[in-house]
């Protein structure tokens, strides 16, 4: 019976590794397509219409308890270069703290200069961000609607660089690239910058250039109002309302444009807990969107290429589950394969290792080399280890996405200040769920040490460096959670 269980767990392990290998092959395909496309801008900027022909644009700023960045984003949007009579600014404020006071002050100031700017307050968060956007849309007068989250700082020429791309009547959305204000803050922000840079610089570019579906990222983009309405409007039944609307609009026939040369700076989460919370929401929402749209998309008349890439895009977060299952089943696999020979290693283990780990690392390394973006070696090494340490939480998010609709939209704290000391002092007063994270991660750290000790006892020296990646990942996560936990205690 024990042998049968071990063989079963071994089969589960290799099925999970196989899922990760498919993802690795997808990364290879992405980078090949990226190299094949021209390095110049796909769509040169069309000529901007004359002042009389410029459309009315509504800019929406959704806020919820953003007291540290509310002033900055309102001032940045107010500075957009666009005729005053053709610019409407909505501050969608659902806040329950002193953000509303700041909003009132800045709205009053800019309104006194002649700008059409006003705040819309709600005493509830029904529908969360989707509800706020939908509520504002009902009152908007713009033909186009630009959206900026509180932690973004659009450049004054943003509208002049994006609106011309709506020259074709079937263009429903234009997405700009995200930049980052605090990349150098820590290894965590550098890691996030790498992940997001490739999301925009490779994934969006490839999908757009090949005519495949890609998504509005919730901010730093602009919509044709009729595209939102024709696609069914903002809906709160997923926690990624942006991804949901993106697929509904494209399935309805609207075309999206990605402009890689329009960069909007933003703020990255500075703590592991905030980053984890943000990524959990994105993972959960992607699976909810997949459940909602993939059945209809697969049976539609869309091309096979669009269908395959949509599945790869929306289901990519299953890799977190594959990685977590592979971690849990690693020790049983070692027990089952004690007598494995060199032949099996060469023909089974080595190819899987190359497709799962090496392929993904090469994806980021090649991006860094081609774009001349300096990627520290330690960041590349931290990436697989940190992914292992965070996989349990993201796996849970995937399960929630499979079995639950909607959910609470947990905002990611933003600070608007790049001074490290001040950020830490403010942040640790509101740090959530650290103790729960520790209770989950510490046992997993201990468990992942068992395969290392097993290999050590059997003097299987070549396997030890690879096996050490698993406890290292949990060490990284536990160390940061402990650091944040003790900072909370000290400041109480």
SSE map:
Elements: H1 2-36, E1 57-63, H2 70-78, E2 87-93, H3 99-112, E3 116-121, H4 128-139, E4 144-147, H5 158-162, E5 171-180, H6 187-209, E6 221-224, H7 225-230, H8 241-251, E7 255-266, H9 272-298, H10 304-314, H11 318-328, H12 330-336, H13 342-371, H14 377-403, H15 420-427, H16 434-457, H17 463-491
Parallel strand pairs: 1-2, 1-4, 2-3, 5-7
Antiparallel strand pairs: 4-6, 5-6
Give a written overview of the molecule.
The structure is a single chain. By secondary structure, the chain is of the alpha/beta class. The chain has 2 domains: 2-36 and 321-491, no CATH class; 54-288, Spore Coat Polysaccharide Biosynthesis Protein SpsA, Chain A, CATH 3.90.550.10. 59% of the residues lie in helices and 10% in strands. The protein is built from 17 helices and 7 strands. The chain has helices at residues 2-36, 70-78, 99-112, 128-139, 158-162, 187-209, 225-230, 241-251, 272-298, 304-314, 318-328, 330-336, 342-371, 377-403, 420-427, 434-457, 463-491; strands at 57-63, 87-93, 116-121, 144-147, 171-180, 221-224, 255-266. It has a 7-stranded mixed beta sheet with strand order 3-2-1-4-6-5-7, with helices on both faces.
Brief overview:
The protein has 17 helices and seven strands.
Query: How many beta-strand segments?
Result: 7
Distance between the termini: 53 Å
Q: What is the C-level CATH assignment of the largest domain? A: Alpha Beta
Strand order of the largest sheet: 3-2-1-4-6-5-7
CATH superfamily of the largest domain: Spore Coat Polysaccharide Biosynthesis Protein SpsA, Chain A
């Amino acid at each position: 019976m024990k042998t049968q269980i071990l063989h079963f767990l071994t089969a589960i392990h290799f099925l999970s590794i196989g899922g990760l290998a498919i993802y690795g092959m997808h990364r290879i395909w992405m980078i090949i397509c990226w190299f094949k496309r021209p390095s110049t801008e796909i769509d040169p900027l069309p000529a901007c219409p004359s002042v009389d022909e410029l459309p009315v644009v509504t800019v929406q700023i959704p806020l919820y308890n953003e007291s540290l960045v509310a002033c900055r984003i309102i001032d940045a949007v107010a500075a957009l270069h666009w005729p005053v009579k053709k610019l409407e600014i909505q501050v969608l404020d659902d806040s329950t703290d002193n953000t509303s006071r700041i909003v009132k002050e800045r709205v009053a100031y800019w309104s006194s200069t002649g700008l059409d700017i006003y705040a819309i307050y709600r005493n509830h968060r029904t529908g969360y961000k989707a509800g706020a956007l939908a509520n504002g849309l009902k009152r908007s007068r713009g033909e186009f609607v630009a959206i900026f989250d509180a932690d973004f700082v659009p450049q004054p020429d943003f509208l002049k660089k994006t609106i011309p791309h709506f020259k074709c009547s079937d263009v429903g959305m234009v997405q700009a690239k995200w930049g980052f204000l605090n990349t150098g803050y820590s290894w965590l922000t550098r890691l996030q910058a790498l992940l997001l840079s490739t999301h925009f610089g490779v994934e969006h570019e490839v999908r757009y250039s090949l005519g495949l579906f890609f998504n509005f990222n919730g901010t730093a983009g602009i919509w044709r109002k009729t595209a939102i309405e024709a696609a069914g409007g903002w809906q709160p039944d997923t926690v990624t309302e942006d991804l949901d609307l993106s697929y509904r609009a494209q399935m309805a026939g609207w075309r999206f444009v990605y402009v890689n040369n329009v960069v909007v700076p933003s703020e990255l989460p500075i703590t592991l807990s905030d980053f984890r919370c943000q990524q959990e929401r994105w993972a959960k929402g992607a699976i909810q969107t997949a459940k909602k749209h993939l059945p209809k998309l697969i049976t539609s008349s869309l091309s096979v290429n669009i269908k395959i890439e949509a599945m790869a895009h929306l289901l990519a977060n299953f890799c977190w589950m594959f990685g977590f299952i592979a971690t849990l089943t690693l020790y049983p696999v070692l027990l089952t394969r004690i007598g494995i020979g060199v032949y099996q290693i060469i023909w089974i283990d080595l190819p899987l290792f190359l497709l799962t780990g090496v392929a993904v690392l090469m994806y980021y390394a090649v991006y860094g080399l081609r774009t001349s973006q300096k990627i520290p070696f330690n960041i590349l090494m931290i990436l697989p280890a940190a992914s292992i340490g965070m996989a349990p939480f993201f796996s849970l998010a995937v399960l929630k996405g499979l079995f639950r609709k909607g959910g609470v939209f947990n905002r990611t704290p933003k600070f608007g200040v790049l001074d490290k000391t001040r950020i830490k002092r403010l942040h640790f007063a509101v740090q959530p769920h650290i103790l729960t994270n520790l209770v989950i991660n510490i046992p997993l750290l201990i468990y992942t040490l068992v395969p290392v000790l097993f290999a050590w006892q059997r003097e299987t020296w070549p396997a030890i460096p690879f096996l050490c990646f698993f406890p290292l990942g949990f060490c990284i996560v536990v160390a940061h959670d402990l650091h944040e936990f003790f900072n909370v205690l000290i400041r109480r």
